[in-house]
Inverse folding.
């Protein structure tokens, strides 16, 4: 069965060059994949023609669909909703809404993507706003889903429980973990610590059977590898993620200059650079991996605005895996089952 | 004029060995410093006798005061307040309260230190709870004060403005910055983003003259060097700080194993190790620098529980500089002046 993904090829700082190249890589990697590229036809064709080694077999699985406008990076979600429906983002999302594609990937304006996704695709029962989640690299080579990353700047206990359930389902389905370890982010590990929402969510999750809930972790717990899903409100998650990106950039710079300063050796510096660049990419998880909008009736993956072709490739791969695992269907079904348990108990 | 600092020598995971060694280093560094060590006399004496190169001139500025108990790491603040007043922490804080020392440094239980500080020393007018702040290293070799780090898990707009003012005064007085750049941490830089508290604080700070307020920064702004003070509630600050510590640890590990894997060379690994360890220390700011409790009538610096002698030395140095700059007096005076302006306008 083919997997059809609609790509907003105009989003992202690097323009169609990166999205087109990322698409070609994904087509090479997944033989069942079909990509629909939405954007200015002329630009997309130019980007395609500039590619080296185009395999015609792969190009047969790529279609271009012209869109006459692009959602501006600074556009407000409200004006995007009122505005024209012929943007590459809206058109790509409509493919998912209408069942002509199983997933959408965009590197455009996050607020607009969120608003258009809610309006065109809709959320599963009981979820008012999707949560944004990405896989953070951990010690020992693992990964940890952090959510929410900014869609919900405030979250009461019930919302935090929703995030926990959605993250757990994601890690179980998409990463094939048998029993993902789930934790709530807090300022300490004792039950008395934190805000009322976090304490109440802790009580609710502790009572819930069928979830491997591990209680509270502090911020460092995101990276230790001790849990697979860490839940917090979108303000905290966004601050933590962006601070981590900032720190990773600074650290890599310092490591590089430390090496160059200490051995004066440009050779060591030159040898180190590619390894450090790889590390920097890995530690810039949103840019690198893409972030899922969880809780929609369809699959939408946000690629970082400054993602290069590799970043796009990873975002498309994530969307592909979510389609393959029928994530939204499981999410809707399992959330319903869980909620009935919470209500009964 | 001598600067007298009371040290809770029993706090911290490494016990008196680290606190005593850190104290001796501080006495070597600051000729006006006098240290009062509070703890089990026998343990303190043993730690002192184990020191190499004890200079009798420096030891003359060190006094030992016996305390018969220690605040347990897991003790609840409420029980510490009700409990015995003969702990090393309570006795050291009482020195400040009674004017027999100008600052207290402790690596003990943060909640207990906060509760005992409020109760014994008291807060300056208008500040109900102190904020915790530490200096985070930034790109370009600078530093940025982040506050609050966990004393106030929730903060309304007025509290955020207090934090901004206290951080600004700290950076101006203690770091001698002429006009520290202050920002609010948010999930975006537009005025419409974030929680109600953050948006309201933004309006209040924008109207305030005499403060170099730069608006919102996102999490990465803590590390870029673009601002000197970043303000957020204690939940967010704590999550960001601990996530940063966790990420720094993971990154340093990965850098090390990347180097070792790529050149197979143990020599490069061995050469890199001290430089990497230095970096790790620098990027573990609380452990390294100590954190100030801002808004008290006296000076209290929290040293990290797992701080070694160098960490203690830095915490004592911070306390020394705060004494030297008469921080609490300026804080009380300037907060009063600012508040009258806010009320008038």
């Amino acid at each position: 069965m083919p997997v059809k993904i609609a790509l907003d090829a105009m989003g992202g700082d690097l323009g169609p060059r990166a999205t087109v190249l990322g698409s070609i890589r994904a087509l090479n990697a997944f033989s069942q994949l079909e990509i629909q590229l939405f954007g200015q036809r002329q630009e997309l064709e130019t980007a395609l023609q500039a590619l080296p080694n185009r395999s015609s077999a792969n190009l047969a699985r790529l279609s271009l669909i012209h869109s006459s406008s692009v959602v501006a990076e600074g556009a407000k979600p409200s004006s995007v909703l009122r505005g024209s429906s012929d943007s590459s983002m809206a058109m790509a999302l409509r493919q998912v809404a209408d069942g002509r594609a199983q997933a959408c990937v965009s590197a455009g304006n996050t607020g607009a993507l969120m608003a258009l996704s809610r309006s065109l695709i809709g959320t599963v029962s009981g979820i008012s706003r999707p949560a944004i989640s990405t896989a953070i690299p951990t010690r020992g080579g693992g990964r940890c889903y952090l959510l929410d990353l900014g869609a919900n700047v405030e979250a009461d206990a019930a919302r935090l429980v929703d995030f926990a359930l959605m993250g757990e389902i994601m890690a179980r389905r998409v990463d094939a973990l048998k029993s993902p370890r789930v934790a709530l982010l807090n300022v300490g590990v004792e039950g008395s610590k934190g805000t009322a929402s976090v304490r109440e969510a802790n009580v609710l999750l502790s009572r819930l059977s069928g979830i491997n809930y591990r209680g509270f972790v502090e911020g460092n717990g995101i990276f230790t590898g001790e849990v697979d899903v860490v839940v917090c409100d979108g303000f905290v998650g966004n601050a933590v993620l962006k601070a981590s990106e900032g720190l990773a950039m600074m650290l890599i710079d310092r490591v590089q200059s430390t090496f160059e300063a200490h051995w004066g050796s440009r050779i060591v510096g030159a040898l180190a650079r590619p390894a450090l660049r790889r590390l920097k990419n890995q530690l810039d998880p949103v840019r690198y991996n893409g972030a899922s909008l969880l809780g929609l009736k369809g699959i939408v993956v946000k690629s970082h605005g400054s993602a290069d072709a590799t970043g796009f490739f990873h975002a498309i791969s994530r969307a592909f895996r979510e389609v393959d695992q029928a994530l939204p269907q499981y999410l809707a079904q399992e959330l319903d089952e869980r909620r009935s348990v919470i209500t009964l108990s």
